[in-house]
Amino acid sequence: MLLEFSVGNYLSFKTKTTLSLLATPIKEHLDTNIFSSNRYDLLKGAVIYGANASGKSNFIKAMSTMRRLVLQSFEQSSADELDVIPFLLNVETENTPSSFEAIFIIDNVRYRYGFEVDNRAVHAEWLFEAPKQAEKPLFIRENDGIEVMKGFPEGKDLEERTRDNALFLAVADQFNGKIAKKIMQWYNNFFTISGLSHEGYKGVTFGMLENKLTSSTLLNFYKKLDLGFDDISISKKPFDPKELPNDMPESLVKQLVTDLEGAFKIDIKTIHKKYNSKGKLVGNVEFDMRSQESSGTNKLFNISGPVFDVLNDGGVLVIDELDASLHPLLTLAVTKLFNSKEFNQNNAQLIFATHDTNLLYYGNYRRDQIYFVEKDSYGSSDMYSLVEYKEEGKTIRKDRSFEKDYIEGRYGAIPFIGNLSNVVTEWQEK
């Protein structure tokens, strides 16, 4: 369970910026949108709004980058770069490390883990735990060395085994450290996906549809959304090199044959009812999912696997551009799964970026779940929640029309378009 995520000096975020899933004392949607864990009341998610190029995707990319660095750190060589870009629009930050930190709960223990890195090395790293209220360090890493505390014996004698560009936590995990393995598993259940490039996630959906324990849940979800088909047919057969195009270069064919040896080709068909001229049902027709169904249906199918996988396991799912290609009601259906006691019994959390303002009205989000991102005149992104926003020194009331206010620019984080008629006139005069 995620409590907070913070990033600083990364892409468009110059200063430290935090998204918190700790519920504030406001009395909104208490039965659906929050859950209690140990001594904390936590939110089941957050929605992020902002103009194009405001930094929404950069914040989600920061989450993805931290996850990648944690899970892939040990696999890299000492010569590999870390692919981390700082805030480049200021001379004070362009050559300093980026910082990432997450606070989360595992087995009723709160952990705070973070690091500072540039493209070549880890400059700082820290891990704290709080079994109760007080927080104590497990290890602290600075440029001149790593200090391992008594509460982290699994890290002893691993200091010299840690490369400059590797995370100490990942090294401890490779040597079967008990705490390190728990944290690695937590990050393994911390998913970040793109709502624009979603083809790569359909494998998860295939796997869940092949599993009898999970297939019925997905199929029932599709039927409730009235996507136009009645069932799904999946065929799986071994990869056949004969199906490759005849004009493909021989060298590429050989490479693919080697890479895809033992792989399977999966075809998915949607089943539609067929009627005669009198409206009588006469049979079924199969449609190819990719070529004959809409882009929205394909997207919903592709991301439904990760969505229900996280719901089943109780992890964290982060989605950029969730609403792209989806009807507003489909976007609403996905988000409501996480506030459902029926589907979200393991307290999974959903964080997503969107332009769909309908959710500000129909989504039933609390003010502490709604975040806005905007850039200042120096190109630096800032993020704030609606519960933090002050208007004439007062907080925003819960009975306000959040959607209307946002479109009118009362909360910021929207594009400044100006007078469109002037833009058209100037263009016509050219």
UniProtKB/TrEMBL annotation:
UniProt cross-references to Gene3D superfamilies, sorted A to Z: P-loop containing nucleotide triphosphate hydrolases
GO molecular function, one term: ATP hydrolysis activity
Domain of life of the organism encoding this protein: Bacteria
UniProt domain ATPase AAA-type core: residue ranges: 46-360
PANTHER family: ATPASE AAA-TYPE CORE DOMAIN-CONTAINING PROTEIN, ATPASE-LIKE PROTEIN
Protein name per the record: ATPase AAA-type core domain-containing protein
Gene source species: Chitinophaga costaii
